[in-house]
Amino acid sequence: MTLFKLKNDRLLETILKQEKVMALAGSMVAYEGSVKFEKALLGGEGLLGVVKRKFTSETVDLMVCKGTGTIYFAHKAKEVSVISLEGEKLVVESSNLLASDDSLKTDVAFAGLRGATSGQGLFTTTLEGIGSVALLSEGNLIMLEVSSSYPLCVDPDAFVGYKGNVRQEFIFDVNWKTVVGETSGETYQLKFTGSGVVYIQPSERQKPQS
């Protein structure tokens, strides 16, 4: 399993020993050793992968980094966090994914109305297995627990990802943005129930300009 560690809160250090990692294209800022970089595709190969990518409104270019050496990754001075998976599945916004262990099974999942309404696109990335994932966030990544007793409600524009036995619903609340002082007219939120953790960032995601 590839070693992921933080050099600081905005720089990921990855040590390869004849291994491979997937990373956001263009996120390599320095490297040492014998490492090759190749373009990769999100969503898997074959017809299903092509269809998924065709209908994903956000474009996420990835690269495969392989060989022996040390690679340093960063992106737009955003905060970096490392999450270890022990056979679990992590669902994450594609734009928040910096790098992942090649041992993890990676796919894309339908986000439906949540993705379309929040301006993030129709699909999110899923990663499953044993390995490490590095995530990007605007500010420190925040982990919130979801329990069977108390549901958790999240602004879709602050949502980063979740893992565990968690169910997600997209709900409307006419008072949601009014109560918190927003006047954009967006009256929706994400509701999580079950048992697990949800990751959010302390900054709302900027919607694409029309």
Characterize the structure shown:
It is a single chain. This protein is mainly β. It has one domain (3-200): 4-Layer Sandwich (Double-stranded beta-helix). It has helices at 46-54, 113-118, 176-179; strands at residues 3-8, 11-24, 28-40, 62-73, 79-92, 97-101, 105-110, 123-137, 142-146, 152-154, 159-172, 188-200. Strands 1, 2, 3, 4, 5, 6, 7, 8, 9, 10, 11 and 12 form a twelve-stranded antiparallel β-sheet that branches. Strand 1 and strand 2 form a beta hairpin. Pfam families: AIM24 (PF01987). InterPro entries: AIM24 (IPR002838), AIM24_sf (IPR036983), Trp_RNA-bd_attenuator-like_dom (IPR016031). This is AIM24 family protein. It comes from Lusitaniella coriacea LEGE 07157.
Q: Largest sheet, if any?
A: 12 strands, antiparallel
CATH fold annotation: Double-stranded beta-helix
Query: Helical stretch count?
Result: 3
CATH superfamily: Mitochondrial biogenesis AIM24
CATH architecture, by name, is 4-Layer Sandwich
Number of domains: 1
- What's the CATH first level? Alpha Beta
Shape: elongated
Number of strands: 12
Protein name: AIM24 family protein
Pfam families: AIM24 (PF01987)
Tags for this entry?
single chain, mainly beta, Double-stranded beta-helix, 12-stranded antiparallel β-sheet, 3 helices, 57% strand, AIM24_sf, AIM24
Topology:
Elements (H helix, E strand, L loop, with lengths): L2 E6 L2 E14 L3 E13 L5 H9 L7 E12 L5 E14 L4 E5 L3 E6 L2 H6 L4 E15 L4 E5 L5 E3 L4 E14 L3 H4 L8 E13 L10
Antiparallel strand pairs: 1-2, 2-4, 2-6, 3-4, 5-8, 5-11, 6-8, 7-8, 9-12, 10-12, 11-12
